[in-house]
């Protein structure tokens, strides 16, 4: 199936240290590309994976579930490990959730969950069980207010993502959240956790929750002041990039 222009995966091969970059729910590798370019300019190999059903059509995504998205991540990590000796993973929103899940199943040098969606606050989720009873497949979608997720309006206009969300996929996302939350204590790798204080999509205290629940001895929590949810393209993106690079350099030889 044809991929939306700008939503393609990317593989920027540089040094022997690599970082897997994982986009969010209904998003695309576009939201991780600038971060990948920043890292690659500093000799860090960056692979931006495209999750199954993403950056094509909402109808394509409709047929996927969380295990499909996770398998996309594992495949990306396998590809990265073919050229890198040390690997990290960074993910935005659901990508942060997948990063946490990956850390309980694969060997990583460190993780960077960005606005990790370990909990959601959309009021419409309470009606999710009723959606399964409705016979018309086409209405199984939430409308998304893309601009609400990004404070920088110019950046919001350039986003490559769906404006509709298949409801069954939201249900699967909730299953992924449940699985990941149950395993947080198993995470022991170094972690850099970043989120905005003014996130409209996931509760801002998600970052603190992740920080407190994981068992990592080396972990850092960074709270941003001038962004909303999509912190990899918003006003504080340079802070995110710099902190991520410094974290990778600190732990690549550990």
Would you give an account of this structure?
The structure is a single chain. The chain is α/β, with parallel strands linked by helices and 254 residues long. The chain has one domain (10-251): Rossmann fold, CATH 3.40.50.1820. It contains 9 helices and 9 strands. The strands form 2 sheets. Strands 1-3-2-4-5-8-9 form a 7-stranded mixed beta sheet, with helices on both faces. It has a two-stranded antiparallel sheet with strand order 6-7. Helix 4 links the parallel strand 4 (86-92) and strand 5 (110-114). The longest helix has 17 residues, at 167-183. The protein is globular and about 45 Å long. The model is unreliable at 123-128 (pLDDT under 50).
What would CATH call the class? Alpha Beta
Query: What are the low-pLDDT stretches, counting only 5+ consecutive residues below 50?
Result: 123-128
CATH architecture: 3-Layer(aba) Sandwich
Shape: globular
Mean pLDDT rating: 91
Q: At the fourth CATH level, what is the homologous superfamily?
A: Alpha/Beta hydrolase fold, catalytic domain
Cα radius of gyration in angstroms: 17 Å
Report how far the terminal alpha carbons are from each other: 41 Å
Strand residues, percent? 15-25%
Q: Can you tell me the CATH topology?
A: Rossmann fold
For the largest beta-sheet, the strand count, sense and barrel status come to: 7 strands, mixed
Number of domains: 1
Total count of helical runs of at least 4 residues: 9
**Total count of strands:** 9
Strand adjacency order, main sheet: 1-3-2-4-5-8-9
Key terms for this structure?
9 helices, alpha/beta, 254 residues, seven-stranded mixed beta sheet, Rossmann fold
């Amino acid at each position: 199936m044809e991929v939306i222009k700008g939503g393609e995966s990317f593989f920027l091969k540089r040094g022997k240290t690599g970082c897997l970059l994982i986009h969010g729910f209904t998003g695309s590798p576009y939201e991780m590309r600038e971060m990948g370019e920043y890292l690659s300019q500093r000799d860090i190999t960056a692979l931006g994976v495209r999750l199954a059903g993403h950056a094509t059509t909402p109808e394509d995504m409709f047929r996927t579930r969380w295990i499909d998205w996770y398998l996309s991540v594992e495949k990306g990590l396998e590809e990265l490990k073919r050229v890198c000796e040390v690997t990290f993973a960074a993910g935005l929103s659901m990508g942060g959730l997948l990063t946490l899940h990956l850390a309980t199943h694969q060997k990583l040098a460190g993780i960077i969950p960005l606005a990790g969606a370990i909990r959601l606050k959309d009021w419409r989720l309470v009606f999710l069980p009723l959606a399964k009873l409705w016979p018309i497949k086409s209405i199984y979608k939430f409308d998304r207010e893309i601009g609400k997720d990004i404070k920088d309006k110019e950046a919001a206009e350039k986003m490559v993502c769906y404006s509709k969300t298949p409801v069954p996929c939201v249900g699967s996302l909730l299953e992924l959240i449940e699985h990941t939350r149950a395993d947080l204590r198993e995470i022991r790798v170094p972690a850099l956790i970043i989120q905005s204080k003014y996130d409209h999509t996931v509760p801002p205290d998600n970052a603190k929750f992740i920080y407190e629940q994981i068992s990592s001895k080396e972990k850092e929590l960074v709270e941003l002041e001038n962004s909303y949810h999509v912190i990899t393209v918003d006003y504080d993106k340079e802070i995110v990039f710099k902190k991520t690079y410094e974290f990778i350099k600190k732990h690549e030889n550990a």
